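User: Run a structure prediction on this.
Assistant: Running it now.
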Amino acid sequence: MNDTHKLVNDLSDQVSRLVKDELRLARMELTEKGKRAGFGAGLFGAAGTVAFLGGAALVAAVILLLALVMPGWAAAAIVAGALFIVAAVLGMIGKNQVKRATPPVPEETIASVKADIDMVREKARR
């Protein structure tokens, strides 16, 4: 009986050690993946910043191109006006999309459930 008791204790200790080792390994793996994800997110942010600067340089190029045929201030004003118009259109489209998404209630599902309830009530009356 002592040998069985000792084997059960050894097995329990080994299982406990195995679980702890697996949890430590999982924690190390998740830490490494978290570091990589953070670094990747930072690179995405850097890419967005560089793309923004590229867009700003492109806007400056358009202004300089227009400045060849008109005063620089007029070229800058025209480009600024065009950018404001694009911003307004994008803003209205975004507002409409947000309006269509709110309130965040599954209205179609609710209507379908109400219809099902009405149908069950109607059949129950018969």
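The chain has two domains: 1-66, 72-126.
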